[in-house]
Amino acid sequence: MGIEILIANALILLLTVIGCIVAVILRDLLAAAIALGAMSLLLSLEFYILQAPDVAIAQAGVGACLTTAIIVLTIKGTKRMEEE
Amino acid sequence: MSSMSKIVRTMTNILFPLTMIFGLYVIAHGHLTPGGGFQGGAIVASACALLVVTYGSRWVLGRIKEKRLSTFESIGAVSFITLAFLGLVFSMVFFGNFLAGSNLLFGTTPVTGSTLADFNTGGVLPLMNFAVGIKVVTGLFAIVLIMAYASSTKEWNS
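Structure tokens for the assembled complex are given below, as produced in the milestone run.
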């Protein structure tokens, strides 16, 4: 494994953790759902770098699309902004 | 549930056929490239979920019934286990690959060495990929559709 792959690994994992923290911090739940989708897409990129393309496709399909769709539908059924 | 804004509707009209064709490609080439029945089915179901999120569940339910989705899910499961038992009948092994090397459907023996991928290989594996794809597409689409319909009725909020 070259040094470029190592740097890309570290960068993508750092961005994944940052996406999780942003999804927890945000008060707007729709923006938090989009942050979770971006985190899941970065996670699938990490799986692809670690040479597991099957898991990457499954993560991009289920984690980034279907989970975000279900959360958006739930937000449409309830309230958008989080309360104290 | 009303439909979303014009921007979302336009992007859905552009992206829905492309996502659908990519998912069907992943299902059909499951024995050659990464992916297979579950992954391609998840991609096709996410395209259908895009349709549900954009146009609302009543618009989709006016075009396809939930009972029909349930029927197709059962057809996928039954055809998968039927293929497995046909392997037991024809080659004496459960999940036996009785079509490989028989020059029938998907039955060509692949050429050894580094060549282009031959689509007409794999025996019973592409048929099982199609069965799993039908089951996963209709199952996930029914989950998203019923959840959207249940959250759009207002009697839950009282």
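Residues 87 and 96 of chain B are 4 Å apart (CA to CA). Residues 6-157 of chain B form one domain. Further analysis is deferred to the final report.
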